[in-house]
Design a protein that fits this description.
The protein is built from three helices and five strands, in the order ααβββββα. The protein has 138 residues and is of the alpha+beta class.
Length: 138
């Protein structure tokens, strides 16, 4: 009886670890869907870049922009781009959620193909490792 309860706990733990393996993939899919919805249903505004920051040892810039909604609300956002794409003062089109202007995106910036592959590979590796653990304790 006690061993059966212990094994049930182990199986639940393995199932939890397997589920956690899918979190990175689910995050990328969520982010991709959110960007797709903003581009399809969001309102368009013209933003102005006010700061470009290059982190140390990075091949990308963090670009900070601000814009005014059609309701006259000032909002801001940021995006990660290749070095040299934007400079302070540049204008770019942004799409934002009318009820939450802080949720904004720029068309063509979020390209998750590489992240989708990495997320899927991570999930497969975690599932394989959980299977091997389950196989050894069974």
């Amino acid at each position: 009886m006690q061993k059966q309860m212990f094994m049930t706990g182990i199986y639940l733990l393995l199932a939890g670890i397997a589920a956690l393996g899918f979190l990175p993939l689910l995050f990328v899919l969520y982010k991709q869907n959110r960007v797709k919805n903003l581009l399809a249903t969001g309102l368009r505004a013209t933003a102005t870049v006010y700061r470009v920051y290059k982190p140390v040892r990075s091949a990308a810039n963090i670009v900070y922009y601000q814009f005014t909604t059609i309701d006259g609300i000032n909002a801001s956002g940021n995006l990660v781009t290749k070095i040299g794409v934007y400079k302070p003062g540049d204008q770019l089109p942004v799409y934002y959620a009318p009820n939450h202007p802080a949720r904004s995106t720029v068309e063509g910036v979020f390209q998750p193909k590489g992240m989708l592959v990495v997320g899927a590979l991570f999930a497969v590796v975690v599932l394989f490792l959980v299977y091997k653990l389950w196989e050894t304790i069974r």
